[in-house]
Structure formats: structure tokens, C-alpha cells
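Task: complex structure prediction.
Instruction: return C-alpha cells for all chains below.
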Amino acid sequence: MNSKQNDPLDSLLNAWAQGRAAHEPELRDLKSRIGHTLTNEQFLGDAVGVHRSTHRLRGRFIIGFCGGLAASALVVFGLLRWASPRVEHAEVPNLAALQKPPSAALLQSQELVDKSRLLHAVDTEFAGGLEWLAEGGEDVSLAVGRPEVASQRVGLAMRMVLVRRRYHESDWTRVWSTDVVTYSEQVVDSLPGTTSAAVWACVLPDGLISLDCDLSLESPLSARVRFSGLLKSGIPRQVFSIETTDEEYRLYQTVARLSNAPS
Amino acid sequence: MQTDEGLVDEFKRTGSRQALDELTDRHVAKVRAMVSEMVLDRSLVDDLTQEVFLRAYRGLAGFQGRAQFSTWLYRVTMNTVHGYLDRVRRSPVAFHAELPETPAASDQQPAQLAVQTELSSRIEAAVASLSPPLRAAIVLTTLQGMGASEAAKIEGCNLATMYWRIHAARKALKRHLAEYMQP
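Output:
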């Protein structure tokens, strides 16, 4: 059982679980039942044999797998040769530039100061009840809940940017973006330009940010994006990409921790 | 005292039945509790717990010792439970809170017992309203006291997803049980 009893929910759940726990006679019966069933089990007699045969099977699997890999490589090579004439006259984009997150995904330090001020001001306006505020294009939306103690909450700025480039181009063009200010562990459940959204970020003790998002984008790209992972504060992370016949789209997400007091 | 992994090794080398009995002895209470809190049907708990141990012992040859035996066993437990809940979901049955067991002799007043019984049913209904992944997150962390990292390994998801599930489950439970959590 969990020792974290000071949370009322934990206390309720643990008391409930204790009420369901088996008593010693029940456990004794269960153990003897399991033991009795084991007596009739075939595998008990040849445990060592089972172990060896696994190794033999693994050996065969490795030989089969290597053979399969070689055959696949030949097929892929053939396909590449067949496909190459279609791309040989295309301009080669700057690959190094393509690997870097576009500047539109970055949250600059002055922007973070501004967002910290914005979060503080709006939260104060709603007596500490602001859950999140999102800005996308000309739309602004916010959610307000029960007032919380601001000093116990960690402010966050998020930026989601969908960028696009045509195959012969090196530059990315921003086609959709949304900025959010919110708090750690707060679910953001609506975003401008999406048909549904659930975004949640949590600052971990080591400073990394755990991010979970599930977005349904509408325009210019209709796509469902699901991502779970760890981010470094302020460093954009590519959470989605898709290639059409002549274009590539990428969605970047950046989350940065905001300072508590506005400067 | 021999470690769990030592007992597994002994079983693999010698086929020792005593090694399996010792493993059962060490883990049966926790496995049974996990099954009970997940399926919420007392009549099935012992059968499913037995199935967990049989599956685990039949699959011991595949246990490579990369994870702790307990983590591996709890993963078998949750896979068995999720499999059962999937089967139930395909033939939906409305949830009915279980009838409480006849209270044991107690020095509590009848009114106090009635309140506790009602509370227990409400908690059970709240836990039953969670989807299996969210329920598993609460069972593994809040009730079984595991860290989010071990819970993520058992459920086969990444750490961020586990954090999210814990958060969403706690939020839903707090909403269901708000009236019982007033200071």
C-alpha cells in the first residue's frame, strides 16, 4: 500500500483496497490451489529441456532472419534503382538546414518574459483560477477553474507549429501555430484550429518536461497527432511528420518553463 | 534468503517445484490484490490469480532476467487482466456495484457500518468508471505503491504516458468522490 496518506483521495482508495484484501485463510487456500494445479502440469518435468529448446529455436530464427534480411535488401536495392530516374533532376535541398527546427518553433527569451507576464496578469484577473490561455491566428481562448495557489504552480509556455516545404525547397513555411500559457500538470483541452485537443505537460524533478498530446488538426492538413515523450525546456521537438506527393509537413512542439514572478 | 531471480534460475536448472512454491508464497497476495482491484468481481479473483501464476510459470523459459522477476510477473498479471477485461468489453454488461460482504463481528454501530458500505460502493463505482489503462495506473501506483517508472514498464507504455494516465485517473476519481473529500 502507498504511504502517501495525506492526500484525501489516497486515504479513501487505500482504505477501500484494505477492505478488499484477502485474509490469511483465503490466501492459504489459493496457494494450495495453485500448488495443486502445478502438480498436474507437464512443464514441471522438463523445465531444463524447455530452456535448451528455446536456444535451438532462437538459433534457427537468427539464420532465418539473416536470410530474410538479405533478400529484403536486394528487393529494396532493386526498387531504389527502379525509382531513381524520377528524382535525378530534382534540386537537392540543403539537408543540414532541414534537420534543424525552424525558427518559428523557437520561443525567444523576450517572448518567455512576455508570456510570463501574460500568465500572471490573466491569472490575477481570474483570482488564481486560470487553467490555460491559447492564442492561434486571431483566436484567443482560455479556461478558468477553481482558484489555486499560484506559488505552488509551475508556469509553462507552449508553442505548436505546423510547417510545410515543397521537396525542392530548403525553407519551411509556417502554416499553423498556436501558443499556450498554462501550468504544469494542467490539461489543455481545446486549441484554435483543431477539432479536438488534449495537451498535458508536467515538469519532472530533473527539469525535463513530460509531454502528452493528442490533436486533431483540421486545416490545411487533416491529421490526428498523438505524441508522448520527454522534452528539454525551450528545445523544439518534432512530434509528427507526413509526406504527400510533393510536400512534407512537420509539427514541432516547444515547452518552456516560465519564471514564477513576472519581471 | 534466495532472491526471486535465484529461485527462477534454480527452477530452470533443476525443475525444482519448491522454487515455484516459494515464488507463489512471496507474490500471491500482491498479485491477487492487483487482480481484485482491476476486475472488481470477487467471484473471479481467485481463478484469474491462478491463471496468472500458471501463465507465468509456463513462460519461465522465456524470462531472461533483464527485468526483475516481480516486474515480469506483474506484467503477466496485467496482461491477463487486460485480456479478461477486453473479453468482457466485447460482451458488454452494465456495471453493478457488488453486494458488500456480510460484515464481520464489529464494535461499530450499524449506522457507521452503513455509511462505510455506501462509501465502499461509491469508490468501487468510481474505480469501475475508469478505462482499464487509467485503472491500471491507479492500481499500480496509488494502491500498490509502485513508482511511475515501474508502472510504465509493467503496462508497456512510456513514462510520459504513465504520468498522463495517473493524472487523468486521479482527476476523474476526485470528480466522482468530491463529496467525500471535503476537509
